[in-house]
Amino acid sequence: MIKVYGYPKTRATRIVWLLEEMGIDYQYCLVDFAKGESQSPEFLKVNPAGKVPAVEMDGFVMIESGAIVTHLADKYSAGELIPETGTAERARYEQWSYFALTELEQPLWTLGKHKFALPKKYRVEAALPTAAWEFQKALKLLSEGLGDKQYMLGDKFTAVDILMAQTLRWGINFKQPVEQENLLAYLEQVESRPAREKALQREAAEASA
Asked: What residues does the GST C-terminal domain cover (predicted)?
């Protein structure tokens, strides 16, 4: 049984969404940040960074959502949600995965850290305009890279679309404008997938239990 440590509407959503896409059974372990559970001795044994997601499977623990998504898709999707290793398609998958995590997400996390995540004495309000500018720059590059394709790799949904769409939604939730029509159409299409709704419902149910 795969054990997912998470909290609703965080990077852990990426893992739950992927597992729902593949129809894989899993145990959801809520890490309640409001109660300080991310810094509890029990959870720090799972992930010393005190962050979600973390996943226990096959006798070991994985952290870092991008790495988890790629590993799970490789292991369980039978090639349906991730291209074969060594192919040009796999190279494009890796390229856009890293872009989602390092270019698109990075300025959003900077915004989050300096608005609420860091202790107040370490927050730097002057960093916010730069982070917002960086996000807009990344959006432009993403829009150009997507072009008129349905999904990041063409006409087929893959696991990289989970990483990209969830990060775009994060930006919108952070009140950052997304004005590119192709990105808005892409986001609407990816978010309409039933597995995403199942993931959100599962997270909400676990949080309210």
From this structure: 86-209
